[in-house]
Amino acid sequence: MKKLVIVGSGMSAMKVVDEVLKIDPLMYQITIIGAETVLPYNRIMLSPVLAGEKEFDDIKTHDEPYFSQNNITFMPGFEVTTVNRKARYVEVTPIENQTFERIDYDRLVICTGSTPFILPLPGKELAGVVSFRDIYDVEYMKSEAGKGKKVAVIGTGLLGLEAANGLNELGFDVTVIGNMNSIMNMQLDPSSGNLLQKVLEQKAIKFKLGAISSKIVGVDKVESLEFADGTAMAADMIVMSVGIVPNDALAKRIGLQTDRGIVVGDTMMTSDPVIYSVGECIKHRGVTYGLVAPLFEQARVCAEQVCEVSHHIYTGSDISTKLKVSGVDVFSAGEFDCLEDEVMCSKDHALNTRKRLSIRNNKLVGAVLFGDSTDGLFYFDLIKKETDISDIRKTLLFGDISIDASSAGSEGVKKMTDDEQVCGCLGVTKGDIVNAVNNGCSTFELLQEETGCATGCGGCSSVAKQVFSFVSGAEMVEKDTLCDCTTHSTQEVRQHIRVLEEVVNVDEVRSALAFDNACEKCGAAINYYLSSQFNEAYQHNDDERPHNEKMHANLQNDGTYSIVPQMQGGLTTPSELKALADIAIKYEVPTVKVTGGQRIDLLGVTKENLNGMWDDIAAAGMESGYAYGKATRTCKSCVGKEHCLMGTQDSMGLSIKMEDAVWSHFMPHKFKMGVSGCPRNCAESTIKDFGVICTEKGYEIHVAGACGIRTKACVKDRFFSTESEVVEYLKAFVQLYRMEANYLERVMHFEERVGLDYIQSKLDTPEKIKHWAAQLPKTIKNPWVTVNHGSQKSA
Ligand SMILES: Cc1cc2nc3c(=O)[nH]c(=O)nc-3n(C[C@H](O)[C@H](O)[C@H](O)COP(=O)(O)OP(=O)(O)OC[C@H]3O[C@@H](n4cnc5c(N)ncnc54)[C@H](O)[C@@H]3O)c2cc1C
Ligand code: SF4
User: Fold this and answer.
1) Predicted local distance difference test score (pLDDT) of residue 473
2) Over the chain, what is the mean pLDDT?
3) 3-class DSSP state for residue 439?
4) DSSP 394
5) Which of 130, 359, 439, 683 is least buried, going by the fewest C-beta atoms within 10 A?
6) Is 602 left (phi over 0), alpha (psi -120 to 50) or beta?
7) Can you tell me whether residue 777 is helix, strand or coil?
8) Using CB atoms within 10 A of its CB, is residue 325 exposed (0-12), middle (13-18) or buried (19+)?
9) Bridge partners, residue 80, by sequence
């Protein structure tokens, strides 16, 4: 049997071994020599281990039975110190030992990865200066954990932020240091970077940007970090995450061609024809890669070469990145900073999501997704294939409209080509899944074992399951899990809450359902479900609510807030206007704007002024307009028959009654209404969650419309002949929506999910309407009255 020796036991090394075994398990006697003393593991998952979300055992990729079953000699804790290329053997030295062993090879594969770059600052050798590269770094950081201990993370890239998040979860007081003015600036445009920064700041992570670190100070251990501008910060630990350097030390030592990386050709062969190299240690066509997907492509090519069944060559990879900080969804692929490119952008303030697409010559060249990365792989594929987007230009911002809930698992998947990537972390394509299924993977778990699909950050698991189900024909009932902290579906969590007899808090729900973790997503959702279940008896947990709801004001892009007082029906009075003008002058409000919902928005309010302004607004007889909440927003109205020649009913009066009837309720999402005095529809009532079109005979009810990224006309629901019927029906409709829609599901999506027939069947008799309407309580008081905003008083 020929001898194959692999240097390194990292992810690329193990992928080469897996692929060789797939091609010909009997061709080689394999020896793996790895300097790390532990079993091979998924390095990507170090971030969740640091954050305490996973244990080392969860991220091991290969174990003892794998080695024994495949007759592999695995040598952890051994370093290859040199290679005799002429006689074809390597010298292996146990770490911290001078004796060495000789191991012969017919083919050698070098997978020595990379080493973290350490800034050459005075004091860099002090205890407490650490990188974020391997399990030992993670163990060290965890061993140093202590509430309030200060840590500086130098570097605002993917790993720096993941380290900062993990350390924050461990209780450290974390400050991220960057020399640029925005974060993840290699992957994100400044606006997306700022959004991300704000989300992380809400998790209590601090940032010091535009700062040049100059010196680490300490006697035996780090004590502080100094900056070029003469300032300094106290630090118990410093994590350097400023890049990696290909580890070509061994290759250099044995005379292989290197150029800041081991130089390889398209077959992954080095300058020695029996030595191959893959992973972060190589330079291929002038490029070095630091992500797993390209390394796996290289490993496949390398395995075919060493098994002498060469089919493919490696021509380079397009790459995409995804941040794995729980509760923060960020995706970036391609280019985003060329000023000449055409840019398409969308932002949903309520959901805090943003998309930015860069287009050049009718081709997508870059995509940055913030808050929702569901369409990441779709855009990535368009970028990779340089697809002409002319035909899909109009819908491009909506993502892959062919793979939505209605076509899940069928049409969308059928359309995918075999080379389309499913799992971005491990570079698994639809074709790989097809092959795996053809080779006997009958369950999703076997597919994961075989291909590694969806074992990285996990972001692709729902698409992967759709593809697997389609290819294998296996029934995969995709659970709509509430979030990554639990395997319980939204409905299961809600059902648990529905049958509770006593009011509990968010953490008690989590622990009763054995959640693995806690994130913003489940916090906000459970908080809402509890509040809609127990109404006034439930005390909202402000820490679990979205920032704007917690602050009772809308955060703006410059860190100030916007406040919008209630103004029912868009009607105001001279004394209200005067009071608002006085308040705006008193607090030096820089911008006063009339909103699309016919209210007055005071923009640019500092956090310190919020309480004072609220008190003054309350003293003038006005209250919060809930413009920041998942709550009843406005009921827009036209002037109606009181003023308009065409008017058929009193649209202003009805709109005030409607707003009054459902005011101050938290909802699964924002809830907007409209009343138009005639079918000319000046109040745009047919693109609202609940709209009324008045006619000579009465009131047409239209529901489930929206105007936003997706504009959708309402569906016509029913007709009433009196105002009081409209108001009663509105209350019933709102209560049904509050109790049956999922958190963050707009009426439009609720109607699409359950169907208008279902809604109508629940509210098809006056008795049923009365029953639902009677259950709608007043759940919240004006949060701007002093007694209710005690938490902001100290702001
Ligand atoms: C915290 C973290 C998060 C990451 N997240 C992502 C992500 O989300 N997505 C993504 O695609 N990528 C991510 N990466 C990058 C990804 O993990 C790496 O690209 C990948 O692991 C590199 O694999 P490799 O085999 O080339 O090198 P490595 O995994 O570094 O393996 C090299 C191995 O060789 C050993 N070695 C070196 N010299 C010798 C020698 N002379 N003798 C014996 N052994 C030797 C080293 O000890 C090491 O174990 C992340 C990396 C980190 C650190
Ligand atoms: S909707 Fe009809 S009633 Fe209302 S302002 Fe327009 S034309 Fe007049």
Assistant:
1) 77
2) 88
3) coil
4) G
5) 439
6) beta
7) coil
8) buried
9) 92
Pocket, ligand 2, Cβ cutoff 6 A: 638-640, 644, 646-647, 651, 676-678, 680-682
What average pLDDT does range 352-369 have in this prediction?
88
Q: 3-state class of 30 per DSSP? A: strand
What DSSP state is assigned to residue 107? Answer: E
Q: CA dihedral defined by 555, 556, 562, 564, rounded to 10 degrees?
A: -80
Kindly identify the ligand whose nearest atom is closest to the C-alpha of 44.
Answer: 1
Q: What is the pLDDT of residues 271-314, one digit of tens each?
A: 999 999 999 999 999 999 988 888 989 999 999 999 999 778 99
DSSP assignment of 268-294: -B-SSTTEEE-STTEEETTB---SHHH
Reported confidence tier of residue 227, pLDDT bands at 50, 70, 90: very high
Q: pLDDT tens digit string along 472-506?
A: 877 655 556 888 888 888 888 998 998 888 999 99
295: number of Cβ within 10 Å: 27
d(Cα 498, Cα 170) in Å, to the nearest integer? Answer: 34
User: For 145-175, how does the pLDDT look when each residue is reduced to its tens digit (9 = 90+)?
Assistant: 877 799 999 999 989 999 999 999 888 999 9
Which helix (DSSP H) or strand (DSSP E) does residue 429 occupy? strand 428-429
Question: Can you give the pTM of this predicted structure?
Answer: 0.62
**Ramachandran sector of residue 204 (left: φ over 0; alpha: ψ -120 to 50; beta: rest):** left
Q: What is the pLDDT of residue 795?
A: 31
In this predicted structure, the answer to whether residue 457 has a pLDDT above a threshold of 90 is no
Yes or no: say if 522 and 485 are a contact pair by the CB < 8 Å rule.
yes
Question: Bridge partners of 60?
Answer: 41
| Cβ neighbours, 10 Å, residue 558 | 9
For a ligand 2 pocket test, name from 649, 678, 688, 700 the mutation site with the most ligand atoms within 8 angstroms of its C-beta.
678
CA dist 365 and 718 (Å) reads 47
Task: Give residue 189's pLDDT.
Answer: 85
Q: Is the dihedral of CA 640, 641, 646, 648 positive or negative?
A: positive
Residue among 361, 382, 380, 359 at smallest CA distance from 369: 380
Distance CA 642, CA 387 (A): 56
85-94 confidence digits (pLDDT tens)? 999 999 998 8
Residue to probe by mutation, ligand 2, list 638, 648, 649, 694, most atoms within 8 Å of CB: 638
CA-14 nearest atom, ligand 1 = 25
Question: Does residue 3 come out as left (phi exceeding 0), alpha (psi in the -120 to 50 range) or beta?
Answer: beta
Q: For tokens 């952008």, what's the residue?
A: 345
Per 3-state DSSP, what percentage of the chain is helix, strand, and coil (rounded to 5)? 35, 25, 40
Exposed e or buried b per residue across 255-275, where buried means at least 16 C-beta atoms within 10 angstroms of its C-beta:
ebebeebbbbeebbbbebeeb
